[in-house]
Model the fold of this input.
Amino acid sequence: MNDPSFDVIEVRAGVEAENDRFAAQVRDFTGEHGIFLINLMASPGAGKTGVLCRIIDALAPKYRIGVMEADMDADVDSHTVTEHGAKALQLRTGTSCHVDAKMTLHGLEHFKPHFPDVVVIENVGNLVCPAEFDVGADLKLMILSLPEGDDKPLKYPLMFTVSDLMLINKTDTAPIFDFDIPACEERVHKLNPRMKIFPLSAKTGEGFPPFLAELERLIDDALTTKRKGASR
Done:
């Protein structure tokens, strides 16, 4: 029941509505310019940059790659992906624990006049805030690493519910960590039956071929559709 003695403002609803408006603008922008946008999300230390470098190395011969590196302050990862041939843009989020759609749109505009075919947002490292904000991405790609434990779908269900593809990274550490991959996959599929899961190792390259084949298929299909729409 509302207390008539004061007004109530639903702040979160307003924030989400504003973000959704910008997310729609992001989708219009990527459609107009033929950009496939990936939102890469994971905890700190899960191996986002290592995975990203392998993605860049594999896709660079076919696509122009851009990366938006989101960190509260440091620009270490931007230097790393630049060394692998991607065009990097640093997003310093300050105290913000995620990238939102307005930041994404602003970042995309800075790639002009030569827009990449594929842009990857390496989101701020955590399994909570990034899952809550739609940035207008074509693909929500998340990473869970063996050292984090196989119980994370139980603790952070939203991330596993909203993502499209999941990578289980650092499989090379399996002899060290007690991580039950089948149990983790079962927990994820209870939340998201359509989630495709790829166990792999950014260190050794094990498991990357099937993931990269799926990623390339998604990119090709989306870019074909976007380019047809832009030519009308």
